[in-house]
Amino acid sequence: MTDYPVVTTGEGVTRQVLADHPDLMVVAFRFAAEGAEGALHNHPHVQSTFVESGRFRFFLGEEQREVGPGDSFVIPSGLAHGCVCLAPGTLVDCFTPRRDDFL
């Protein structure tokens, strides 16, 4: 259980910080419906993504990748990325350093 609030980030998408430290942050992104989107964006943080549940099509720069439960990957600093939910589920993302904009 975490004391951080659940924040709506888009239609059918929420985010909740699970743990944070200045050097690292763990965040759950929950996608409630097929077609929900994680908007294309980039940031200076290195990000790792773990698919806890569901299926997603990720856009990583020029690459597209479909991922499901148990898959994980790293997104380098500055790389444009986003996703579309193919089946409802949860992504657990870690950021280094911490995403202060999420606090």
UniProtKB/TrEMBL annotation:
Domain Cupin type-2, first and last residues per copy = 34-85
Q: Which CDD domains match?
A: cupin_KdgF
Enumerate the InterPro entries for this protein: Bacilysin_H2HPP_isomerase, Cupin_2, KdgF, RmlC-like_jellyroll, RmlC_Cupin_sf
Source domain of life: Bacteria
Tell me the protein's name: Pectin degradation protein
